């Protein structure tokens, strides 16, 4: 038996964000599926209940006149003994107007935003009246919305397993990466100028020992790792699913690599999911070979 959630509501009230949250919870999600295709899609899901165990579909005013058959679709579900829950996302008109103003998007019904909201409320009312849950997102933060959905979908509260951490080492000379947190470790004495270490990396024991014996590194890493550990629960509470921490040095070969390796080990010991990538080791080595 599949777990089916039908997502609906006002445009701008958070339906798209809700689908993203369901995806983070490993649901198969389909946005704006035509009404006439829903029953066939659910039949496909039933035939492969392992792959489509948890499903969330979005049905809203973009369906147009076909929404008149929405209640007939629910009758089909009941005849096939398909359990479902309808979650309707709503917000006050003033909040919807503000959100459209901020994003500068046109209303999907092709009217002015105020006219579109008024018309949409009439069209979508046939779903609103049969909704199992109505969520008003007027004053909700993303983290709060994620918590509400996790409760409705009977999913464990978001924890370490839902935060995907990427740790990236890089060289400033090759440009800044796109990351949530960027930290500069160029204050550490550079192994590049030490005989025998220039062509090694932070993954080599010799470089590791050289960096670790520096007093300033020990003090720094103790504070830095605890700072990261302290802030991660806040990102989880806020609803963040992906976090990238970039650590940079001059060439992205020695200091940043070792620090990234050490931070990865530290966070894994705290049971976080961590993916490590050294952006500029390969680039640096390839350039050296070309020379």
Search tags:
291 residues, alpha/beta, Rossmann fold, 2 domains, 5-stranded parallel β-sheet, 4-stranded parallel β-sheet, 10 helices, 9 strands, disordered C terminus
Could you describe the 3D structure shown?
This protein has about 290 residues and is of the alpha/beta class. Helices cover about 45% and strands about 20% of the residues. The protein contains ten helices and nine strands. The protein has helices at about 15-25, 35-45, 70-80, 95-105, 115-130, 140-150, 205-210, 215-240, 255-270, 280-290, and strands at about 5-10, 30, 55-60, 85-90, 135, 165-170, 180-185, 240-250, 275-280. It has a five-stranded parallel beta sheet, with helices on both faces. Strands 7-8-6-9 form a four-stranded parallel beta sheet, covered by helices on one side. Helix 1 crosses helix 6. The radius of gyration is 25 Å and the shape is elongated.
Q: What's the helix and strand layout?
A:
Layout: E1 3-9, H1 15-24, E2 28-30, H2 35-47, E3 54-58, H3 70-79, E4 84-90, H4 93-103, H5 113-128, E5 133-136, H6 142-152, E6 164-171, E7 181-184, H7 205-212, H8 215-238, E8 242-249, H9 255-269, E9 273-278, H10 281-290
Parallel strand pairs: 1-3, 1-4, 2-3, 4-5, 6-8, 6-9, 7-8
Helix pairs in contact: 1-6
């Amino acid at each position: 038996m599949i777990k089916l959630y039908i997502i609906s509501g006002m445009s701008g009230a958070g339906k798209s964000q809700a689908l993203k949250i369901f995806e983070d919870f490993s649901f198969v999600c389909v946005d704006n599926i035509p009404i006439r295709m829903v029953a066939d899609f659910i039949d496909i899901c039933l035939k492969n209940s392992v792959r489509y165990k948890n499903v969330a579909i979005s049905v809203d005013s973009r369906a147009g006149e076909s929404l008149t058959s929405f209640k007939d679709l629910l009758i089909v579900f009941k005849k096939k003994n398909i359990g479902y829950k309808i979650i309707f996302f709503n917000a006050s008109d003033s909040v919807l107007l503000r959100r459209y103003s901020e994003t500068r998007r046109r209303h999907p019904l092709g009217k002015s935003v105020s006219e579109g909201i008024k018309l949409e409320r009439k069209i979508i009312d046939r779903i609103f009246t049969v909704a199992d849950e109505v969520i008003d997102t007027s004053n909700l933060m993303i983290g709060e919305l994620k918590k509400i959905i996790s409760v409705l979908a009977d999913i464990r509260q978001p924890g370490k397993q839902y935060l995907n951490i990427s740790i990236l080492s890089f060289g400033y000379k090759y440009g800044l990466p796109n990351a949530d947190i960027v930290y500069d470790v160029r204050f550490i004495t550079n192994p590049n100028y030490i005989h025998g270490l220039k062509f090694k990396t932070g993954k080599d024991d010799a470089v590791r020992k050289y960096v670790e014996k520096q007093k300033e590194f020990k003090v720094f890493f103790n504070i830095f790792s605890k700072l990261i550990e302290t802030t991660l629960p806040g990102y989880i509470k806020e609803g963040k699913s992906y976090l990238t921490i970039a650590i940079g040095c001059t060439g992205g070969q020695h200091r940043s690599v070792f620090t990234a390796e050490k931070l990865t080990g530290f966070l894994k010991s705290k049971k976080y999911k961590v993916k490590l990538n050294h952006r500029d080791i390969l680039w640096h080595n390839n350039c050296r070979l070309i020379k």
